[in-house]
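re: that chain from earlier
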Amino acid sequence: MDRLKLFITIFMVFLFVLIPTEVFASEGATSIDLTATSYGIWAVIIFVAAYALVIGEEELHMRKSKPMIIGAGLIWVLVALAYLAIGKSDQVHGLLNHNLLEFAALFLFLLAAMTFINTLEERNVFAALRGWLVSKGFSLYKIFWITGGLAFFISPIADNLTTALLMGAVVIAVAGGKSVIAKEPKKAKFIALACINIVVAANAGGAFSPFGDITTLMVWQKGILEFSEFFVLFIPAFVNWFIPAVIMSFFIEKGDPDPVTEIIEVKRGGYFVIGLFVLTIAMAVIFHNVLHLPPMLGMMTGLGVLKLFAYYLKMTGELAHRTDPEHKVGRWDIFTQMQRAEWDTLMFFYGVILCVGGLGALGYLGLVSSLMYGDLGTTNANILVGILSAIVDNIPVMFAVLTMNPDMSQGQWLLVTLTAGVGGSLLSVGSAAGVALMGQARGTYTFFVHLKWAWAIGLGYAASIWVHIMITPL
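^ sequence. v structure.
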């Protein structure tokens, strides 16, 4: 079924390419102020209700994509009715197609990246790194800094969610496992502080790379910032992580974890996949900067090469089942790694883009843009974006900003990219990394434990903004 969905998505992309360009004419992409109508009011109510269910995902045990997909459909029904009422129904098609193209490009990009990450995981690349760290016998204090530093430098490539889960597994393994933590309060405190450190580091590291977070990816694919321009945020992002890390490090219990000897070998082809992933990233950059093609095309081309390599592994006996009655060469298939992609996240992303796009078609984004970037001022508005991203989630907030497309300088676009990326660290529920670690270290790293250190994280947030303003002209 997942393969069928993927085929349909790709087929949609080809349909969009074949549609005459008149469909995407500027008149079809211009929203009308319908905020005061019943259609507009009901659209906001639906969006708030859907997002309330998303926020309550942990308690309701309902995946976040479900309410957002339904909300997207209902909101666009209201958009269609609203435009039909004013005799502008011909514009709805162009507005909707614009949002679908946004989703299709990001969907294919993320699908390729997730498949690479899943393949690296299946080849034991991450497990080998974790085993090496655990077996070295570092002190708890050193593990705190090593996992935080690795989270900061790995997340620009492997995304903040994957990085947080990897480093979280290292921390829990070093502490002796979940069963030991419950019996030893000192190790439980170490786990909590290390998880906070990892979340802040992973979010900060993802802020200075187009591949580190979905928000930075959206900004890059939109063509607002060039690939190399993101690295200007390295120092502010580092400050964002380093300040709270220094503060929390004073509260790490001194001592060494129990010795562990764990050696995990990288499976055949694992190192080649690492090199291919780096090459694919470079290809995406070249496609975008030199050939002026969507980065998604470079990622999908690299995915095609990965599939060929997977075929080679299968044909040369990788995980072969020689005793299979049908004498198949092997069952290992790259499509298995594609099926393991975060489909809930991808579908949630679809819901977010269409919900926000629908609200924009009704005129709400223009209204919010006027209030924030007109009345508050550009700098204050961009700082507020980061705070909102901790409450609402940075994906819809950043997509709303990109859709509003306020007239800002390069320095201000870098500022909002920074704040949207690191602002989610203020609360444990403000980022995918925080939510994932709450599940991984359940009962030890919690919302209130993270909230206890929000003041230190807030200092890092404020300092990173100050440093960015000092080194980059706004």
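Residues 111-339 form one domain.
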